[in-house]
Structures are given as structure tokens and as C-alpha cells.
Design brief:
This protein is α+β, with helices and mostly antiparallel strands. Helix content is about 40%, strand content about 20%. It folds into 2 domains: about 230 residues, 2-Layer Sandwich (Nucleotidyltransferase, domain 5), CATH 3.30.420; about 220 residues, Nucleotidyltransferase, domain 5 (2-Layer Sandwich). The longest helix is centred in the last third of the chain and has 24 residues. The radius of gyration is 23 Å and the shape is globular.
Length: about 500
């Protein structure tokens, strides 16, 4: 039997997942294993890199338990981005890995975050990229860097355990903020600021390239054939876009998760504060990503804070979200003048203002909890429209439609609301495991199951329900959008005062 399946590993913040895909994008095997997150202090986020391998091994064994492994043609990895580990000469961690969500390097961001760094990396100044955390280590734990022989992202760590090679994908390494996007190579300037030699960094490969082969020891542990091709993957955001079928300009992926991430594929690199630029999953492209720190997080906040112990809707047979959506649907677009600016976790694109806070404005006696619920969903959609309009100033092709995934995409009410406010078609991705599927697409193209990445994406992805903008609702929202855009600029001077008063 010909090798006609591919294995995708998704090593995320909370767990590892392994899925076996066929050439048509159907799941034929799946395994999962949890990962622990350590928060030793406020603003910290750490993991033991050994757990990445332990969880990945367990997930792979589960995925292939009922599969003829001789049919598996290749393996590719996708993963949590910006996370990295410092290893010694034996490949052992010198300190716990620092995660993307670790925000301890605020002083380093203030000192070293410059327009020059933004131009080099495409990353607006913020504490997420690993470069700032490496600067923190250089200042607070200099002995760590003295003993460091390898700085690795999650992809590089797993590839070394799989093959024995120190290698990674450009689309995996780039989110660390150490790559010069104009050259696609490590930046000696940025490495020098930390005190690292490029020999401490893994070799870079394009997504979809064959990196190496599964070594015998790892093959035995995983239950896979020795010599299995290991294909360069990409970070979870880029893979999610590819798994939603976004491989060329003109469409955007929309991940309605805890936060909201939207991204487009572009052929040219131009830095801007309107988005975060990344090496794309398709070689020669760049992903422009928009970030809103509010998605289903705000729905949970509504339940915990506005409802509290009353728990209204919690026992509804249709589910909490459907209960409140049914009530919100009775309210006219614009929530009778109540506007929510969803900066509960600060303002990301395009403002990048960590002082900003959330706002509810326009309250009147008519407003109740259903108004608040609807205004929250509308506010997130207004913010997406703002981000998209700012980003399109730097893109050759406008976004005609969004392909949505994530927990929020299961809500037809919210998807239609987004279509009406943003004025673009929203289409549901045909596969709810789009991130893993993106890695599977790269594996399939890299080993010849499909001739190239674009062909693989076309063959392995599908689309679901479509939501077209309603002209009547869209016109009503246009007027409210003008008001929405005015709120944050008017209040921007107030937020630092509030932060200072609370300090």
C-alpha cells in the first residue's frame, strides 16, 4: 500500500495534539495529551520543554494506535509561537521555557523597543516576541546565557528530538522576533544586542521543506517507521490560516477564540503598526495578523461579572450562548445606543496601548443585560472593522471575505453580526482543526502526496455556511461605527491617569 497519509503535531500552550490526515483532508486518527502551565509570579508563564516531547509522544501514539503506520508518508509540526527554551550542550533546559504570554520584560520593551526593531522584525513594540525576554534573561539571569548553546522555539526542540538535527522553519522561528524579514535570516544585529552568536540558533528551512528523517530511537518510542520524512511546519497562527484555505491574497482567516486573530496573506513585506507581519506558511509570502484581546473571553466575562451567581441561561437546554443570543436578537442593531470598546486586555492592533481599558458608553434606563451582551459582540466586530480598515491601507488587495474558525464561529448570530458590521462575507471553515490541518497540508506537499502547497490546500480544505452582509443592518451599523471610532481617541489621555492612580 502506498504511503497516502500525513501526521500533524500541534504542540500548543495547554496540550499536544496529533492528527492523521488523508489526501482529501479527512481525519483518520487522533491523539491528545495535556501540558501544564507554570505561573511562578504575576505576569510570568513557563513550561518544562521536556513536557513538550512527553505530551507529543503520547499524542502521536494515540493518533496512530489504529493506523497502519506504513501508510504515513511524513510528519510536520505546528506549535505555540514566541515560546522558546535555552538549552545546554546536551540539549537540556538551563531554565524553564518562557512562553508567549510571559510579560515580565516590560522594562526591556520600553528600553529596546524602537522603530528600527519594528522595521527589522515586522513586530510592533510589545512584550510578546522572545527577543525582549532574552534581553530580560541577559539582565537578570546572565549565567543562563553564558551556559546556553542552543536557543530553540517549540518546533526546533521537537525536530531535534525527532531527527537529532538543530533545525526549524522560518515561519516557526520568526515570531521570536530574531529574524530580519527583509532577508528571511537571523538578524546579527538583534542577536548581538542579546549577546548571542548565530551558531546558537537552529538552521532555517522554508515551510514544506524536508528537514530530515525520524531517527530510530524516536521511531521506536513513537511507534512510527524509522526514516519517516520530517517536513518543516509553521507557527499555529500561520497554519490555522493555511488550514482554512487562506494561501493567497484576497481573503482573511478569522479565529474567534478567547481572543480574536485575523490574518491575510501578502507577497510583499511592509511593516506597520496596523498589524504584525510574519513569515507566511507559503514560502515567499507574509502573513499580516490583526489582534484583538477580546473574543469568547468577553462572553465568559459577561457570565462571571454581569450575571454572577444568578447564572441566568446556564441551565438552558440550548446552551448559555444561545439563551442570551435569543434575547440579544430582539434588540435592534446598535443596542439602543450602548457601545462597548473591548479593551479589557488593553488595545492591540492598531493602537498597541497597554494602558487602555475597556469602555461601556451610552447607558440609559432602557438598557439591560441583553443589551450588554449584544453590545459586547458588536464591539468586538466594530474593533475588527477598525483593524481591517487600517491594515488595508498597506495591502494591495482588500479583504473580500473572512473564513472563520474557533469557538465563536459556532454562533450563526455572531457570524451574521460580524458580516453586517465589517461589510464582508463570513464563511465557516470546513474543518474545526484548521491549525493541525495546515501542518498536514505542509507535510503532504513536502513529501509529494500533493505536488505543492497551493494544490494541497485546495485539495484538503473545505468551506461551510456563508453569512452575507444584510444591507439594512449594515447601514444602521455605519452610523454607530462612526461613534465607536471616536471613543478611544477621546479617552486615550485618561487611561494613563487611571493606571497611575491605581498604582
Amino acid at each position: 500500500m502506498n504511503a497516502d497519509l500525513v501526521l500533524a503535531v500541534d504542540c500548543s500552550t495547554t496540550g499536544a495534539k496529533a492528527i492523521v490526515w488523508d489526501a482529501g483532508g479527512a481525519r483518520v486518527g487522533e491523539g491528545r495529551a495535556p501540558l501544564e502551565l507554570s505561573v511562578p509570579a504575576a505576569g510570568y508563564g513557563e513550561q518544562d520543554p521536556r513536557d513538550w516531547w512527553t505530551a507529543t509522544s503520547a499524542a502521536i501514539r494515540g493518533a496512530v494506535a489504529t493506523i497502519d503506520v506504513a501508510r504515513i508518508a511524513a510528519l510536520a509540526v505546528t506549535h505555540q509561537r514566541e515560546t522558546f527554551a535555552c538549552l545546554d550542550e546536551h540539549g537540556d533546559a538551563i531554565r524553564p521555557a518562557m512562553l508567549w504570554l510571559d510579560s515580565r520584560a516590560g522594562a526591556e520593551v520600553e528600553q529596546y523597543g524602537t522603530p528600527r526593531v519594528h522595521r527589522l522584525t515586522g513586530k510592533p513594540v510589545n512584550p510578546t516576541p522572545g527577543w525582549y525576554k532574552l534581553l530580560w534573561i541577559a539582565r537578570h539571569e546572565p549565567w543562563v546565557l553564558e551556559a546556553t548553546r542552543h536557543v530553540v522555539d517549540v518546533h526546533a526542540y521537537l525536530v531535534h528530538r525527532l531527527t537529532g538535527l538543530w533545525a526549524t522553519s522560518t515561519a516557526s522561528a520568526d515570531p521570536l522576533g530574531l529574524v530580519d524579514l527583509s532577508t528571511g535570516d537571523w538578524s546579527d544585529e538583534l542577536l548581538g544586542a542579546v549577546g548571542l552568536d548565530r551558531r546558537a540558533l537552529p538552521a532555517l528551512h522554508q515551510p514544506g521543506d524536508r528537514i530530515g528523517a525520524l531517527k530510530p530511537a524516536a521511531a521506536g518510542e513513537l511507534g512510527l517507521p524509522s526514516g519517516l520524512p520530517i517536513i518543516a511546519g509553521a507557527g499555529d497562527g500561520q497554519c490555522a490560516g493555511l488550514g482554512a484555505g487562506i494561501a493567497e491574497p484576497g481573503r482573511a482567516y478569522l479565529n474567534l477564540g478567547t481572543g480574536l486573530i485575523a490574518g491575510t496573506v501578502n507577497r510583499e513585506y511592509e511593516p506597520s503598526s496596523a498589524y504584525r507581519a510574519l513569515v507566511g506558511a507559503v514560502p515567499g509570502t507574509f502573513d499580516y495578523e490583526l489582534f484583538i484581546g477580546a473574543g469568547t473571553y468577553m462572553v465568559n466575562w459577561f457570565a462571571d461579572t454581569i450575571l454572577g451567581s444568578s447564572g441566568d441561561g446556564g441551565n438552558s437546554p440550548d446552551g448559555f450562548e444561545q439563551y442570551w443570543e435569543a434575547r440579544a436578537a430582539r434588540i435592534a442593531p446598535g443596542s439602543d445606543g450602548l457601545v462597548v470598546v473591548p479593551y479589557w486586555n488593553g488595545a492591540l492592533t492598531p493602537y498597541w496601548d497597554h494602558h487602555a481599558g475597556g469602555v461601556m458608553v451610552g447607558f440609559a434606563g432602557v438598557h439591560g443585560r441583553a443589551h450588554i451582551y449584544r453590545a459586547i459582540l458588536e464591539g468586538i466586530a466594530f474593533e475588527l472593522r477598525l483593524c481591517v480598515e487600517e491594515a488595508e491601507r498597506h495591502q494591495v488587495e482588500p479583504v473580500a471575505e473572512f473564513v472563520a474558525m474557533g469557538g465563536g464561529s459556532h454562533s450563526p448570530f455572531w457570524c451574521q453580526l460580524i458580516a453586517d458590521i465589517v461589510g464582508r462575507t463570513v464563511i465557516i471553515a470546513g474543518q474545526d482543526e484548521a491549525t493541525s490541518l495546515g501542518a498536514g497540508i505542509l507535510a503532504a506537499a513536502g513529501v509529494g502526496v500533493h505536488p505543492d502547497i497551493l494544490t494541497a490546500a485546495a485539495a484538503m480544505t473545505t468551506l461551510g455556511a456563508r453569512f452575507e452582509p444584510d444591507e439594512v443592518s449594515a447601514r444602521r451599523y455605519d452610523a454607530y461605527y462612526d461613534a465607536y471610532r471616536a471613543v478611544y481617541p477621546a479617552l486615550r489621555p485618561v487611561f494613563p491617569l487611571l493606571r497611575g492612580a491605581a498604582a
